[in-house]
Amino acid sequence: MTAGEVSEKSKSAFAALAPLEAVLFDVDGTLCDSDPIHHIAFREMLQEIGFNGGVPIDEDFFVQNIAGKHNDDIAAVLFPDDIERGLKFCVDKEAYFRKLVKEKVEPIKGLYKLTKWVEDNGLKRAAVTNAPRPNAELMISTLGLADFFHHVIIGDECEHAKPAPDPYLKALELLNVSKDHTFICEDSVSGIKAGVAAGMPVVGLTTRNPENMLMTANPTLLIENYEDPKLWAVLEDLGKKAGDA
């Protein structure tokens, strides 16, 4: 499968979800393109402490070592000899990130078209993220979606964060829905792996991460954003099936 087509395998995976009960969304990079804001926060704060000899981290370093990863893992990459310092740094970085979010956060193109479709079809929905709760709730409220989500599940509040399936399994439990009638929207390898491990089809967004990188995690469908005709082809089929049921 390439990002340019909907394979028969993808079509049948979505068709099998009928009747659809729920849609689960990651937050960073899935509701909003927040990676550039994270990149700014990390770049400025790391440069301030002389990381990498004071040379600012570039996009490649950010994608390879930081994007989509849990803060515990980021701390270990950035400060392998002083994890405690790394964890403290990540807490400070999140506070700075929250300041920046209010000025800079933008929804992924077509997001409100999809959230309206979800509401119009009476589906349950949850946000499922490795982000700290204050970040997730700030982004969700800044996007005007505080009343849209029935639950917000945080990786740190589960036994294991993504890429483990625990946060997605917790979402199914809280919403009281079946994995056989739910799909997930994600934008990172870690998140897609979590969704696949939880046994659900995953729509992968190529917001920031390259298509070939996301494909290693085995998404059911890859889209550019929520206006992508490939998404609506499978959703319209699902909508028809809901009408037939």
UniProtKB/TrEMBL annotation:
The UniProt entry, under Gene3D superfamilies, shows: HAD superfamily/HAD-like, Putative phosphatase, domain 2
Q: Which domain of life is it from?
A: Eukaryota
GO molecular function, one example? catalytic activity
Keyword field: Magnesium, Metal-binding
Cofactor(s) required for function per UniProt: Mg(2+)
- Report the Pfam families cross-referenced here: HAD_2
Asked if the Swiss-Prot or TrEMBL record annotates the protein with the keyword Chloroplast, the reply is no
The answer to keyword Methyltransferase applying to this record is no
Q: NCBIfam families annotated for this entry? A: HAD-SF-IA-v3 (TIGR01509)
- Tell me what this protein is called: Haloacid dehalogenase-like hydrolase domain-containing protein Sgpp
